[in-house]
Design goal:
Elements (H helix, E strand, L loop, with lengths): L13 H14 L8 E5 L5 E7 L2 E4 L2 H4 L11 H7 L1 H14 L15
Antiparallel strand pairs: 1-2, 2-3
Helix pairs in contact: 3-4
Bound molecules: zinc ion (ZN).
The site of zinc ion has 7 residues, from helix 2.
């Protein structure tokens, strides 16, 4: 996972560098409006998370294949970055606002 900071030239040991990067990641907002973030999925695939206003998206097949309105979709990558609890709460809230009942599994395709 690469960070948007360049620490080369500071003379840090790899361990110090890792610690700086970790603190940096923890201080960052989870996903800012308009931000795109690359995440590594299983099997080394790289997906892109994107926030646009209240809508969060991911370029993975699990997200794209959902037939729910975009603001009600989520996937394991969004949950990994945003925190599973926060992300579940966001989707539940969006569903309530839209007057929809979520399917038992957000990953299951609905056939309507
Ligand atoms: Zn995803």
């Amino acid at each position: 996972m690469s960070a948007a900071v360049d620490l080369s030239g500071l003379g840090l040991t790899p361990e110090e560098e890792a610690n700086v990067l970790l603190s940096y990641e923890m201080l960052r907002p989870k996903l800012e409006d308009g931000e795109r973030r690359a995440v590594e999925g299983s099997k080394g695939a790289v997906y892109e998370l994107h926030r646009k206003g209240a809508t969060l998206s991911c370029s993975c097949p699990a997200w794209r294949n959902q037939t729910l309105p975009v603001q009600l979709r989520t996937c394991k990558h969004l949950k990994a970055v945003l925190g599973e609890r926060d992300e579940d709460a966001r989707v539940r809230e969006a569903a309530r606002a839209a007057g929809r009942t979520l399917p038992a599994s957000p990953y299951r395709r609905s056939r309507r």
